[in-house]
Amino acid sequence: MFLTVDAxxxxxxxxxxxxxxxxxxxxxxxxxGMALPSVRQLAGDLGVNLNTIAVAYRQLQEEGFLRxxxxxxxxxxxxxxxxIEEEALxxxxxxxxxxxxxxxxxxxxxxxxxxxxxxxxxxxxxxx
Amino acid sequence: MFLTVDAxxxxxxxxxxxxxxxxxxxxxxxxxGMALPSVRQLAGDLGVNLNTIAVAYRQLQEEGFLRxxxxxxxxxxxxxxxxIEEEALxxxxxxxxxxxxxxxxxxxxxxxxxxxxxxxxxxxxxxx
Amino acid sequence: MFLTVDAxxxxxxxxxxxxxxxxxxxxxxxxxGMALPSVRQLAGDLGVNLNTIAVAYRQLQEEGFLRxxxxxxxxxxxxxxxxIEEEALxxxxxxxxxxxxxxxxxxxxxxxxxxxxxxxxxxxxxxx
Amino acid sequence: MFLTVDAxxxxxxxxxxxxxxxxxxxxxxxxxGMALPSVRQLAGDLGVNLNTIAVAYRQLQEEGFLRxxxxxxxxxxxxxxxxIEEEALxxxxxxxxxxxxxxxxxxxxxxxxxxxxxxxxxxxxxxx
DNA sequence: GTGGTCTAGACCACG
DNA sequence: GTGGTCTAGACCACC
Lengths: 128, 128, 128, 128
Fold this sequence. Notes:
Largest interface: A-B, 39 and 39 residues
Structural class of chain A: mainly alpha
Shape of chain A: globular
Number of strands of chain A: 3
CATH architecture of the largest domain in chain A: Orthogonal Bundle
Low-confidence stretches of chain A: none
Number of domains of chain A: 2
CATH superfamily of the largest domain in chain A: Winged helix-like DNA-binding domain superfamily/Winged helix DNA-binding domain
Mean pLDDT of chain A: 90
CATH topology of the largest domain in chain A: Arc Repressor Mutant, subunit A
Helix content of chain A: 55-70%
CATH class of the largest domain in chain A: Mainly Alpha
Strand order of the largest sheet of chain A: 1-3-2
Oligomer: homotetramer
Largest sheet of chain A: 3 strands, antiparallel
Number of helices of chain A: 5
Order of helices and strands of chain A: HEHHEEHH
Radius of gyration of chain A: 17 Å
């Protein structure tokens, strides 16, 4: 579990943690059925409040990524969320691409960066 | 000027407005030297408070996109911010791509969507 | 915390407060990691609106002097901004020196005053 | 007359102009009895509004630097303002020095910079 | 006319 | 508890 929180990040702590878990799932580092650290454990590791972890886990549960089994810890759910509607995915992508354009990149540079980034995301999950 | 604010959006109003202006600049709809509506005017159009617009404009000024001249109006800066370092651009891109992967898309689908989105962004600025 | 606001001062209140905090940091009275009063507390102490303090704190955060943690408090940043380029520092110095010359002082008087002023700035931080 | 206005400067235009004239007087470039350009002329040269120049000249007149002779133009006054009280001079000096300290300079560096700056100010007036 | 600042008071989000 | 956002409305400074 390589999760970190960054005080300079503008996102709230619980969001950073939830996003971090999602990234681990996306990369394949966390697979279906694998157990997550307990709320107490992770809170201790990251040096944050118990509540903060609980909020992150609850959000992930509501989104269907985790299953909390009473008294038996938290595991990555076997049934992944169904194919998400494209409309919801476009907004953050468009926003990210806009920043690249404003940063002075042309389309071919951006597409190359996207390919590079996708490779990096997948690579992490394979190295295990 | 096609700016809108969305109450369901999690971002604060002033951020939505600032992002909207940036998008207009990225698309070429707003070009160097063009005047923006006055804070009062835009506040009236969008149905938000005058101060909210002022905050958005000030942020854009600090980021180098606008020149706010006290007593005169607000115009798009002629000299755009220099090429932004890649590191700052990667985080939001990576985050957006992660969501696409979790949404069940494979890499080729994602790259196609990126190309589509880039075309859409540029298209807007050309229709004038 | 010896911060005051002066109605006769031409600078806006939030700027006076931000400058005051900077002066306390420069003198060493406020050191890395020290907590600042909450916006509500300081607003009450100075008799200004809560928002005015928030604006001052946000500006100081953007300049790298403070770390504002939502839900927790505000502390002096551990890593100070790196060495600032001389060009930005010269303008206000030149302006101040010009006034001394117009006020009828010769160079040796001015240099003596500068030494005196520097000593005063540092002195404050040591008396603790 | 080497006066310029800078749109990036935070000071209002009339203040930049007034400060510029003061700097020319301090350096000796403008001496007692010398005529200043007319309001119209200077407004045209700088590309600013007539009123803006008028405000700057009026401020300089109130401070005793200029004498406006009805229908006969504006000249640098022969009787310079008396020795200004030190208290008024200290505030901007202290503010400028604080910035140098925060910028990472130690006292000897600052004193050296002050000597350099004083020399530069005087030098300008001699080269004519 | 323009933008800038400030207030009082409300409500929300975070830890 | 903390800070963040927003409003309504006031007054000021600039051009």
